[in-house]
Each structure stands twice: as C-alpha cells, then as structure tokens.
C-alpha cells in the first residue's frame, strides 16, 4: 500500500478490502499497519500501536477492512487506557463496548492515540509526551483533549477516530484541524470501558474527515435496533440518506457571535450560500456565562471524585490542567453541585423551546476568534493568552451540560489560511440530521488542504 492510500475514505477502504483475495487482504492490513506506525511516530500522535489480523474482520460488515485508531481512553482488551499518563502495565479490562461494536462490524484498531492528561485540557499540551503539531499549520493550535485523534485523521492515517467529549473535547480538536466532530446525545453510545472524567458530561464522540465517514462509524456504534431507526447499516444507503433533499429550518446565533471580522465574513457567506428552499431565523445568543458556570461546577465536582486516587497518589506528577479541574471540586460546597444538577432539565427545556421548537437545527459559532496560534494557548509560552485558551471551549461546554447533540463542520478558510467551522445543535436523538447537514454543506477536507 502506498502512502497516498492512507488518505482513503471508509467506503474506499471497505471496497478495496472486499474485492481482495484472502492473501491480498492480509497484505493490505500489514501495509496499512506499517504505514500507520511510521507516520504516527513522526507525528507523535499514538501512544500504542497494534498488529491487527485480517482474520478478525467480519465479512460483509459495515466497516469491513476499515482501519481506525482511537483516543487512549478506551479499554482495548489488550491494555488499560493510558489516559494521557506515562504508560504502565495495568491489568486490562474487557474491551470497551464501543470498540467491540466497531470490531464486530469489521473494523481494525491500529493504535491508541495521544490525549491531554486524564482528558483535562482544551489543547494538545501534555507534559508527559512530545508536542503534537497541527497537520494543517504547525503554528496553529490543536484542540483537546482528543488531540491525537484529530491529528491522526487530519494527517490521513485513519478516516475516523473515537474520542471523548466532556466540555468540547471532540469538537474543539475537530475544528482546529478542519474536520467533522460529532458529540452524540448522552447515553446513545455506550460508555462501558471508557475512562471517565465527569460522567454527567462525558460522551463518546466521532472525529472524521467527512460526514459520511463519521456517519458510517456512528452507525456501527449503535445497537441494531437503534441504528435501524437512525441510519442504515450500509455505506451506500447511508450516503443516500445523508444526501436526501430537505427543506432545512435553521435557527442561528452566528450574527450575534462577536466574531473576528474575517471569521464573521466566512460565516455570513456560508449562511447566504445555503441553497433554497431553506429558512434561517436569527436568534439572540444563549446566556453562555451562566450555562458554562453551571457546567464547570459539575465538571469540577465529578472530576474531583473520579480523580481522587490520582490526586492522592500522583499529585507531584499531575499536569497543571488536571489539577485546575480536579482540585476546585474538593473545596466546592456540595449544595452548588446539587443545584447545578437540578437546573439541567429546566434549562434544557427552555433552550429547546427558544431555539429548536420551530427549527430543525441551531447554528452557533465554534471558534469565533479563529483557530488560535499554538503559542497563545500553551501555558509557559511568552505569548500565552488565557483568554485565547478560554475561548476554545466557550461555545462547546454548555452543550455537554444541557445534554444536547452537536456537530462541528468546516465551512471556509480565514485570512490566515486556517479552517473556519460552525456548530450545529439538535434536539436529543437528531444525530442523523446533524450528519446530513454536514454532508450537504461542509467544506470538503480536500479543499482545506488546497487552501
């Protein structure tokens, strides 16, 4: 397999594998594995690599012969998740249910991908490993905490990857690397065997080069009865469903985002360029300060409990970002946490009534100030700007708190040549609609590469 074939889509990988003889299939898997190991080492995006066998692929499965790799937050059946810490030989548990479902559909797992320590971080910064560079622009930031996933997908090592999203940790890295990032409705994708951070907020999500690739992986994650009602278990039928013409009813807060001028221009052009028939209603922005404060209370309280052992035993070696998330939860009054939890249901109902009662999807900003420089969000850098770091998750974390599905999609290029993305938000269970919107309107990744 030549290096360019690393950039194949799910459908191409599946087609090549299905047409090959058994001997050719073994060669395909071996070549894909070797290429992944070589490029992952150059990019520092993998913490472990695996040697899959073509004999394990399910014949005729939705992902038959598709090579993937995932965030190092999943039990693989061979190793316990590294969680962004120095690797140890902890006894592994059973394979995470999500990975098992992908394998049952014929996918191969090529490796575990780098992440921020304990998923505590909005960037690729991790003192325990080499720095990750954005494959699109070495001076640009890579969002976190699913940083290795975004780097591997953007570099063409795999067409898609599973990450976790607690405060935007799938959507931020997808946006910085010009990819599609889906955070599903909580509970739809099983969390068994996945390292937790804040269970109320945690969601297993998908980062992909295209909405179609993401939809194929997402369909494989669901149990048969759920997948049948959302997306078909066939690549051609999934593409047909995503491409089906719709009369989109859209609400939008893009005009009220306070975006940087060049980013605002791209977002405005995107809205004006959406084809008829459509309807776009401009809405005021939600109270992000209040919603994100409540999300932070839940994050701090639950992370303090989840990471209690690490704080007691690994305190001296924990990254500053981990401590900044875990320690406040120990000092926080319990009544704050109980109040924050009690507000989720009424605030979600109010949000749905305001933005989605008469609209299919809500369009919101993603990174309205653009993809920041890597130096601006790296602590310890002379150019570090805490406002730039905070801006990475401002438009993402509150949706974990409200428990709503969301998807980021690239729509254009800013004045620095970096991708501009928007976020589409839907009602619970609207993942197929979100993926269809991205399939029809996202800027193709090939166009981002040619910027």
TrEMBL record:
The organism's place on the tree of life at top rank: Bacteria
InterPro entries to which the protein is assigned, alphabetical: Amidase, Amidase_CS, Amidase_dom, AS_sf
Pfam family of the protein (one): Amidase
Molecular-function annotations in GO: catalytic activity
Annotated Amidase domain residues: 25-435
PANTHER family, alphabetized: AMIDASE AMID-RELATED, TRANSAMIDASE
Identification of the protein by name: Amidase
The species this protein was found in: Achromobacter pestifer
